[in-house]
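Supplementary Methods. Inverse-folding protocol.

Structures were first reduced to a discrete structure-token string of length 308. This string, shown here, constituted the complete conditioning input.
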């Protein structure tokens, strides 16, 4: 039996559950010879702001603790260039495309959603880890009510395009954040974003990154991400997209067992841009070997070691 790995995120159907995460796959065309974007469930493009952002001074990324700490600073071409230059060739290849939205005020997100609602983008993903300038720079996602209002405004402006809310890893109550995002109209949540981190050289007394702190990603954050995905999937009926340290098909299957409907591949793409395809092939083999017909038959099947 060939498993059917198509999954649904609200109104959106993905041909398979393996997506490229925002920030590691450019605009989907840079890595064509290694990973054709149309083969994946979806590609989420680099975070987009209303105008181009220059990003942080270097160094912008460093390996640490078996993972990566980055402070790129959300450098991007801006939504206008994305819509004119990056989106058409990506859609012409038949890729399912998500636009990741970044802003400094709730109005930024609504304006981006409005612009993108008129394009061929398949869904929006709100990165709520950005600092909210209206509230002293605290991340939008730090407060479930602020995140909910942001989501509501973006959903309204998106005029029917499915909206995912991408949750930060370290919040007081990640399940409440997920609940409020779905109540505010999101089709699904995705998590986790990178984990705030600092890399120090004791001899030079210097931080490794130009911005001093950054975001940790890759294998060290997988257990943290799995727990947050599990907590959210217990709290909401809507789909959860899991990510954080997925490098192998087995990692991806673990997120599905913990409750994820789909997964995103981040840092692994930087190590090997072919990894999403290898993970997809491995998942197909895993489902076939386990006699599982579809993702739903594995999803949320987590048991304790002492359960029957
Ligand atoms: C270099 C780099 C750039 C990133 N840029 C973005 C971004 O623009 N928007 C966003 O929501 N997440 C961004 N992320 C976070 C990833 O999408 C992902 O949430 C995080 O790295 C955890 O997944 P991983 O361990 O598989 O990398 C970025 C991550 C990295 C490593």
């Amino acid at each position: 039996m060939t498993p059917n790995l198509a999954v649904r995120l609200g109104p959106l159907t993905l041909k398979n559950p393996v997506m490229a995460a925002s920030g590691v796959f450019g605009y989907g065309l840079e890595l064509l010879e290694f990973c054709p974007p149309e083969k994946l469930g979806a590609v989420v493009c680099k975070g987009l702001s209303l105008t181009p952002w220059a990003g942080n001074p270097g160094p912008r990324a460093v390996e640490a603790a078996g993972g990566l700490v980055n402070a790129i600073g959300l450098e991007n071409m801006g939504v206008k260039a994305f819509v004119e230059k990056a989106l058409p060739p990506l859609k012409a290849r038949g890729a399912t495309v998500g636009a990741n939205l970044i802003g400094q005020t709730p109005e930024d997100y609504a304006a981006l959603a409005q612009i993108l609602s008129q394009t061929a983008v398949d869904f929006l993903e709100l990165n709520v880890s950005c600092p909210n300038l209206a509230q002293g720079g605290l991340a939008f996602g730090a407060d479930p009510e602020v995140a909910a209002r942001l989501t509501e405004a973006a959903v309204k402006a998106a005029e029917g395009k499915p909206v995912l809310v991408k949750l930060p890893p370290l919040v007081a109550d990640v399940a409440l954040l997920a609940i409020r995002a779905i109540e505010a109209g999101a089709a699904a949540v995705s998590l986790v974003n990178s984990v705030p981190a600092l890399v120090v050289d004791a001899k030079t007394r210097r931080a490794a990154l130009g911005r001093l702190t950054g975001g940790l990603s890759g294998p060290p954050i997988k257990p943290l991400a799995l727990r947050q995905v599990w907590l959210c999937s217990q709290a909401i009926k809507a789909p959860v997209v899991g990510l954080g340290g997925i490098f192998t098909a087995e990692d991806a299957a673990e997120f599905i067992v913990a409750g994820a409907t789909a997964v995103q591949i981040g840092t692994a793409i930087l190590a090997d841009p072919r990894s999403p395809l290898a993970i997809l092939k491995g998942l197909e083999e895993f489902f076939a070997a386990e006699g599982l017909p579809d993702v739903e038959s594995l999803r949320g099947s987590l048991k304790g070691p002492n359960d029957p």
